[in-house]
Write a structure and sequence with these properties.
The protein has 8 helices and 20 strands. It is α/β, with parallel strands linked by helices and 417 residues long. It has a 6-stranded mixed beta sheet with strand order 5-6-7-3-8-9, sandwiched between helices. The radius of gyration is 26 Å and the shape is globular. The termini are far apart.
Length: 417
Amino acid sequence: MGTDAAVELDRVSKRYRLNRGWSWRKPGKELWALRDLSLGIEPGESVGLIGHNGAGKTTVLRLLAGITRPTSGRVRTRGRLASLINLGAGFHPELTGRENIYLNGVILGLSRQELKGRFEQIVEFADLGPYIDTPLKRYSSGMYARLGFSVAAHVDPDVLLVDEVLSVGDVAFQERSIRKMLSFRDSGRTILFVSHNLSAVEMMCQRTVWLDHGRIRLAGPTAEVVRAYLDAVDEALIEEAAGADGPAENGEVQIEELKLTDAQGHLSTEFEYGESLRVTVRCLARVDLRQVECSLTVRGDYGPLFTATSDALADWNRGAHSLECVFEALPLLPGLYRLDVQVRHAGTSRWAMPQTAAAFRVTTDLAEFGSDSPVGATKSRGGFLAVAYDWQVESGGRTEQLRGLRLPTIMAPSSRP
């Protein structure tokens, strides 16, 4: 680890004591959020930090921001640091937005003269013009967070610590936030970026560190680390689905069984490109239901790919029911996928969420079909949906054909063995 690192954690451990009951005198359990962690980030580097909830990501940021101290080890940062962790920390609810900009800016290391020069930019970025002289106690939570982000983003930091701030504000503000952080990265600032939004991590970060129970499990180029992390998550999901008795209860409808079968009717979690996938859902209605419908969604790593939704079914009486859906030809690149299920009816809340009930793998080796292109033959390189393509390049009076993606011919269902 270089002595000129902008951010450095040297064999850092962090312990929290979990006290029992109401008495501080009783001994409590210990939680080690970090264990002997060493991490260095060079000036100008943009590094992502990913992992499951409780892996230690936010603890790392809190240590670097000086919010908490390590139990052992050494933490060091160089230059002016801004943290987008607890947005609005240090704000006073009785003061106006204008007064809080000056208060918070001074706390973050700016002079009043510097703040005066950046004041209009801060207000414009936060989109609070008509309310800047209103006390913060009258702000909505979104307005409060936008002002916190805007102040922290305009202190001209050498090091920027970011923790799950892309959910702040509306879509337009989120886009401004992303552009602001990208401008920091492109101007050579040091960024440590924590997010469960892995597509944002891939967009922002050259290098990524995967934390697992307070230790580094893998570190390296972002695409490689994100791929390994997603594969581990999917593998665990397949194991969980294979060992579960059935999906969890969901209000008036309990999904008792969900099974995946191949074209021959065999239970399977592995399928070929273009093969049919049959999904059977067995439900128990606890009460009489009206206007029942079912939706099945195939998801990639970052979101839904396609959904099959039934028309409104006949009303269900209390008791057992079964649904079956056949995806005739899976158009997916090799990789792991999730299957979400939701059974809705007239009384279902509009906010009800589907649940991940199973996972499956597409295993087709496209190289067997002449797909020798290194680009776009798996979901880690080409997305999720399998679409054949060719490239042709014309340059200097010459025409050149480049390797594309070839797909196997999908047989009609009646001709399959």
